[in-house]
Amino acid sequence: MTTTYDAEAPDHLTYKIVGGSSAIIIGDRRWDRTPGSGWKLSVQEPIKQPTPAWGPQPIDAHLLGTTRVAGHTALLISFYDPETVGFFTIAVDRKTLRTLALTLTAAAHFMHHRYSDFNAPITIKPPR
């Protein structure tokens, strides 16, 4: 399953699941849509964006070495997050210190993120 997220500080987020649902969050409002239906408005606790996928106190961090991601030399770092109860491996750009890729492995759950287009102009608006 592939999901694309766009995040815009301070409190805007949108996601689209290929062949599945979509959502738009702006401040205290949220719109959700499932395939074949219209947008449904609901109240949303405001979120802060961007935020990392892991909790506030990861432990047991280790530098594994270096790798290349999308043409960038990156540090490969692993750690455990007790809040997520998962093991993370992230690739961090050596020059900008931005996370370029992330892999999470947890009980009955795994995911891979690719991060790109940092500071690219985007506008997240309510649906029409």
Calculate the terminal CA-CA distance, rounded to whole Å: 26 Å
- The assigned structural class equals mainly beta
How are strands sequenced across the largest beta sheet?
A: 1-2-3-4-5
Residue share in β-strands: over 45%
User: How many runs of DSSP E, i.e. beta strands?
Assistant: 10
What is the rounded Rg? 16 Å
Per DSSP, the total helix count is 0
Helix % is under 10%
Can you tag this structure with a few keywords?
five-stranded antiparallel beta sheet; mainly beta; 128 residues; 10 strands; 2 domains
Describe this structure in words.
Strand 3 and strand 4 form a beta hairpin. The chain has two domains: 41 residues; 56 residues. It has no helices and ten strands. 0% of the residues lie in helices and 54% in strands. By secondary structure, it is mostly beta strands. It has a five-stranded antiparallel sheet, with no helix packed on it.
Care to give the gist of this entry?
This protein has 128 residues and is mainly β. 0% of the residues lie in helices and 54% in strands. The protein folds into 2 domains: 3-43; 59-114.
